[in-house]
Known about the structure:
By secondary structure, the chain is mainly beta. 0% of the residues lie in helices and 39% in strands. The strands form 5 sheets. The protein has a 4-stranded mixed beta sheet with strand order 3-10-8-5, with no helix packed on it. A two-stranded antiparallel ribbon has the order 1-2. Strand 1 and strand 2 (28-37) form a beta hairpin. It starts with 12 loop residues before the first strand and ends with a strand.
Amino acid sequence: xxxxxxxxxxxxxxxxxxxxxxxxxxxxxxxxxxxxxxxxxxxxxxxxxxxxxxxxxxxxxxxxxxxxxxxxxxxxxxxxxxxxxxxxxxxxxxxxxxxxxxxxxxxxxxxxxxxxxxxxxxxxxxxxxxxxxxxxxxxxxxxxxxxxxxxxxxxxxxxxxxxxxxxxxxxxxxxxxxxxxx
Length: 182
């Protein structure tokens, strides 16, 4: 017997098998055939149903697609991940699946629906079209709540000493405070 042993699992693809029969007199005869194994069942997609994302100091968060996984699997092979926003906005379009989903200030206080895609074939890095390997993929949805927990910074104007007679109650004459936020 050449190839996988009797009773073994064949890998996906084509395996050549050769059988050899021998009688009591030592006469042998061989026959060969091919076994083709294909995976026609898409993977099982399991999502984290609800995820919370906090923006960074630059007002953005890039979240890896794998973050949304909650135990996805396939019966024959490893699984690979991409994700996209259900609705596009200025943060990121929804016309492709990405390795990371981008969130920004526009998303703060909203719950964003993410389409999490699981593949049972290796995927190329970077954005891919919506129909890329779709026969080898399965989707589920994740609700992502986006918040901003960073406080703004405030810089006061320089200290000023003013006599009571020259005091300006509008305070404009003494400088302006500045504030920045992510």
